[in-house]
Amino acid sequence: MKKVFLTGCDEYDRATLRKKIETGLADIGIAPDDFKNARVALKPNLLNASPVEKAVVTHPEFFRALVDTVKSYGGAPVLVESPAFQSLEKVVSKTGYDAIIRDERIPVWNNRDTVVAHNPSARKYRRFEIAAPLADADIIINLPKFKTHEITYITAAVKNLFGVIPGLNKSQWHVRAKTKSEFSEFLLDLYGAIMSEFSASKKIVHIADAVIGMEGAGPGASGTPRHIGAIVAGVDAIAVDFVLAAIVGIDSAKVTTITSGAARGLGSASFDDIDICGGRISDFSIKGFQPPKTGIADVVKNWSLERDIMKNLLVERPFPVEGTCTLCYQCKKICPVGAIGMADAPRRVPLYDYSKCIRCYCCMEICPEAAIRLKRGKLQWLMDRA
To answer: Which helix (DSSP H) or strand (DSSP E) does residue 140 occupy?
Structure first.
């Protein structure tokens, strides 16, 4: 059985976090001596330059607790992360990571040096260029922020590994894996590649920040922070995500990275196969947690995305809101298919070409003002009544 550590935690107090995290590491088989003279790659979620209270990024004190643990037992941490569009310098400055990096003298991946990871058992994608420090590390610690996600339903351990792919290369993957199901299967191919390349030679651990998570229209500023009060850890990313979904009452059957990941043999997604230690699911009472509003069945969306007319009738589209949009054009810069243009006066919002839009919602993720909403297709009400 796969061990998953679950514990309650209601605040970002460094000493409290460190104590709980070290207990969790011990429970899942990671001993203090494992860090001695070890190079440790720490991979938080630093999606964009949002204030910490928005719950978009892994809390800096959560990250600092891992840094303290690693260094106190003789390890050398390195920060591995690559925001999709904004510079890492801007993101760490806005989120408070810059002080930790400076004070603790933590090396940071330069977002350029890569190694190739192969997945011989991939469903579709077998080759990935990923952050070089993963290959150099003795231990990889994945530090996701638990949030809802418009494409993958939730973002946690599996989805957070998308950040080991350099910057704007992420947009290219959105073009190659256009639909929700295709993108989730791509993430599983990536996870499989990381496990195939590194699991035999180094320890890979996932520790999720679910103290304050996100519900609703995540994973960016359009989502709503939600107190969950949990830390979840394990060496099986699928099992960690399964437990996180269970805590908040999300049906894991709606999360392709969980269901397909288990079907592929990449991890466990059943209470019969998971040994939860430290706490119990019943210890948490998260009522009314709001999942992303997916609207219609993914199978219909996947079909309609291949047909422009049906896409615009049956699939939600990103829609910029006048009065909130500041015309920073970060959405335009990140769009992988060039579907966003300059504002067309008198409207003061970017101009969208929905015939090109692939509904990757990168623009929503990156918008610092939460100025991009989802607008329903004109015929979606028919599907809702079906």
So the answer is: strand 139-143
Confidence of residue 300 (pLDDT cuts 50, 70, 90): very low
CA gap 212, 206 in Å, rounded:
17
CA distances from 73 to 40, 140, 156, 232, 354 (A): 11, 16, 27, 22, 53
Measured in residues, the chain has a length of 386
3-state secondary structure at position 25: helix
Distance CA 312, CA 337 (A): 16
What sign has the CA pseudo-torsion 251, 253, 257, 262?
positive
Burial zone of 83 (CB within 10 Å; 0-12 exposed, 13-18 middle, 19+ buried):
buried
- What phi, psi does 121 have (nearest 5°)? -105, 15
* Its pTM surpasses 0.85: yes
What's the mean pLDDT in 156-171? Answer: 92
What residue ranges define each of the domains in the chain, with the CATH number in brackets? Answer: 2-283 (3.40.50), 298-385 (3.30.70.20)
Token pair for 48 = 């964009």
**Which tens digits make up the pLDDT trace of 164-222?**
999 878 888 988 998 889 999 999 999 999 999 999 999 999 999 999 999 999 999 89
